[in-house]
From TrEMBL:
It comes from Kushneria phosphatilytica. It is found in: Cytoplasm. InterPro entries: HATPase_C_sf, HATPase_dom, Heat_shock_protein_90_CS, HSP90_C, Hsp90_fam, Hsp90_N, Ribosomal_Su5_D2-typ_SF. GO terms for molecular function: ATP binding; ATP hydrolysis activity; ATP-dependent protein folding chaperone; unfolded protein binding. The gene is htpG. This is Chaperone protein HtpG.
């Protein structure tokens, strides 16, 4: 029914792009439209139940929440209906015409041809409702917000081609009805067996009953009775005993709550009794959402109190560094009137948070026993977990055990070595865990600082993620071993160096005293100190920072973020065995000056640093090459 109030509006650009992708790319997956529409209907029922806690009238005398599915082979339609919360005109326009997640447009634009065909990538947008257009060439939505007048109904229609019309209608029932006018090649869905099969496949675990009608013919044709049969199991999955839930059910439930098209990597289902009583079902996704690093990206658990849905994305129950964990928390201790604001003040919440944090870390610990699955997790979420030691001191050691690194043992960019692995390979006299931080994997791997370590066969962690230096400032120890940055401070290999080696080093240092003093004079204010070192075997020189100084990587990050920092002068260390250093000893005047400066500049470049005056460096180098 249309009225004078009918209005035609355009979809937001993102919606157009997404519709286009879905219709053309997700063809083989298109049966999931039913799952998505049932999922939305069930969510709408959950929302009504919550609001009706304080206002029974919202049920409008129909408190039996449900989703209904009907089909009509002649009209080629499938209808999904719920008696949930419904939508106002404004809700319809914003929910069924836009996608609110920020960054969506940019993300969609960046997708490559192959990625565009990947249902799992596209699925992360909560494309839910729009998936109807995979099977329908016209979708009609009729809805009314529970508790409003009958004339506050809204009809939304679209052919999925850039615009939709919206009109006011009379609607006696609250809730939402979605009619899909099937495409010619999708009429197969207007079929009882097909629909029932799909409901059981995808929506068994949803607490709200999903019903379908059975029509019984009476004596004459007009005398038919309709009985409604509940097709799904209709019991909230997490309330059932673990032993009775199959992996497929856990996976299907994950897709419902996480709006994800991929299976989860792992899950943990627990019922806790005692002082606190709650059930949690936590999942680790297989793939990171595109907005994992955006502040406003969705995170948190779906919160229920005594099986009543309270809110989505309750972020109070897990720390930020576990923001990739999805799931459900059903508490018996919180009040049904709890709100986001009240959660922040409730002391019970803090206790649950700490318990759920442990559970999540244990779940990851278990996952780590399957190295391949854990690698998938690490590649997606490792850099998020690296925020852990700074955020959660109490669990630092546990988190550290879950970290994975590139190291000189494998020399591979794949971060797959644990600290435990490292410790098992440590040399007999080795006391510390050595690491280097650089801007890129190659800069770390080829750093001159590693030369002595490679020579002596001592393993070094190769760190090059942006967060790594920040991580290492919060990670001082693991399993009683301290962490040592090989590019900072005086290199002391402790007991690994023999007495003779130490003596020889001291003697060399003495022998080079005058050379060191000459260089120091030439370089002046540009360095903090000059000294000979035994950490180099191939390179002539390297720069190091004082032990407690902020590292180069963090400096560059902070400077890029516009944070002014006091200048720090490097310490120049020379390899006394190197031919260029030996040559310095017999060089005078300008040549000495040039060579000393070139060595300093090269050391800075090898560190990934920027030269203050690169042209001067090149000029000097060319003079030397020409000479
Ligand atoms: N049957 C329904 N009843 C009431 N509201 C609905 C219904 N279907 C959709 N909506 C509203 O439209 C919004 C958009 O739905 P859509 O399926 O596109 O995404 P979504 O399922 O909400 O995704 P996400 O859950 O990731 O936010 C929903 O969040 C909800 O507010």
């Amino acid at each position: 029914m249309t009225t004078a109030q009918e209005q035609t509006l355009g979809f937001q650009t993102e919606v157009k792009q997404l519709l286009n992708l879905m219709i053309h790319s997700l063809y083989s997956n298109r049966e999931i439209f039913l799952r998505e529409l049932i999922s939305n209907g069930a969510d709408a029922c959950d929302k009504l139940r919550y609001q009706a806690l304080n206002n029974d009238a919202l049920y409008e005398g129909d408190p039996e929440l449900r989703v209904e599915i009907e089909y009509d082979q002649d009209a080629k339609t499938v209808t999904v209906r719920d008696n949930g919360i419904g939508m106002s005109r404004e809700d319809v326009i914003s929910n069924l015409g836009t996608i609110a997640r920020s960054g969506t447009a940019e993300f969609l634009q960046q997708l490559s041809g192959e990625q565009k065909k990947d249902a799992r990538l596209i699925g992360q947008f909560g494309v839910g409702f729009y998936s109807g257009f995979m099977v329908a060439d016209e979708v009609v939505v009729r809805t009314r917000l529970a508790g409003t007048e009958h004339n506050a109904g809204v009809e939304w229609r679209s052919r999925g081609e850039g615009e939709f019309t919206i009109a006011e209608i009379e609607r006696a029932e609250h809730g939402t009805e979605i009619v899909l006018h099937l495409k010619e090649d999708a009429v197969e869905f207007a079929d009882e067996h097909r629909l029932k099969h799909l409901v059981r496949k995808y929506s068994d675990h949803i607490e709200v009953p999903v019903r379908m009608p059975t029509v019984q013919e009476g004596e004459d044709e007009t005398d038919t009775t309709i009985t409604w049969e509940t097709v799904n199991e209709a019991q909230a999955l997490w309330t059932r005993p673990k032993s009775e839930i199959s992996d497929d059910e856990y996976k299907a439930f994950y897709k419902h709550i996480a709006h994800d098209f991929s299976d989860p990597l792992t899950w943990s289902h627990n019922k806790v009794e005692g002082k606190l009583e709650y059930t949690s079902l936590l999942y680790v996704p297989e793939r990171a959402p595109f907005d994992l690093y955006q502040r406003e990206g969705a995170r948190g658990l779906k919160l229920y109190v005594q099986r009543v849905f309270i809110l989505d994305d309750a972020e109070q129950f897990l720390p930020l560094y576990l923001r990739f964990v999805k799931g459900v928390l059903d508490s018996n201790d919180l009040s049904l009137n709890v709100s986001r604001e009240l959660l922040q003040q409730d002391p019970q919440v803090e206790k649950m948070k700490s318990a759920l944090t442990k559970r999540s870390l244990d779940m990851l610990g278990k996952l780590a026993k399957d190295p391949e699955a854990y690698q998938t997790f690490w590649n997606q979420f490792g850099t998020v977990l690296k925020e852990g030691p700074a955020e959660d001191h109490a669990n630092r050691e546990k988190i550290a055990g879950l970290l994975r690194f590139s190291t000189t043992h494998t020399d591979s960019t794949t971060q797959d070595q644990s600290l435990q692995d490292y410790i098992e390979r440590m040399q007999a006299q080795q006391q510390s865990i050595y690491y280097i931080v650089a801007d890129s994997f190659n800069a770390a791997r080829h750093s001159p600082h590693l030369e002595i370590f490679r020579k002596k066969g001592i393993e070094v962690l190769l760190l090059s993620d942006r967060i790594d230096e920040w991580l290492m400032t919060h990670l001082t120890e693991f399993d009683g071993k301290s962490f040592v940055d090989v590019a900072k401070g005086d290199l002391d290999l402790g007991e690994i160096d023999s007495e003779e080696e130490k003596k020889a080093q001291e003697e060399t240092a003495k022998a080079k005293e005058s050379l060191v003093a000459r260089i120091r004079e030439v370089l002046g204010e540009d360095v903090q100190e000059v000294r000979v070192t035994h950490r180099l075997t191939d390179s002539p020189a390297c720069v190091v920072l004082p032990e407690h100084e902020m590292g180069y990587q963090m400096r560059r990050l902070m400077e890029a973020a516009g944070q002014p920092l006091p200048e720090v002068k490097p310490i120049l260390e020379l390899n006394p065995e190197h031919a260029l250093v030996t040559r310095l000893e017999t060089t005078e005047g300008d040549s000495f000056n040039d060579l000393a400066r070139v060595l300093l500049d090269q050391a800075i470049i090898a560190e990934g640093g920027q030269l203050d005056d690169p042209a001067a460096y090149i000029k000097r180098l060319n003079t030397m090459l020409a000479g």
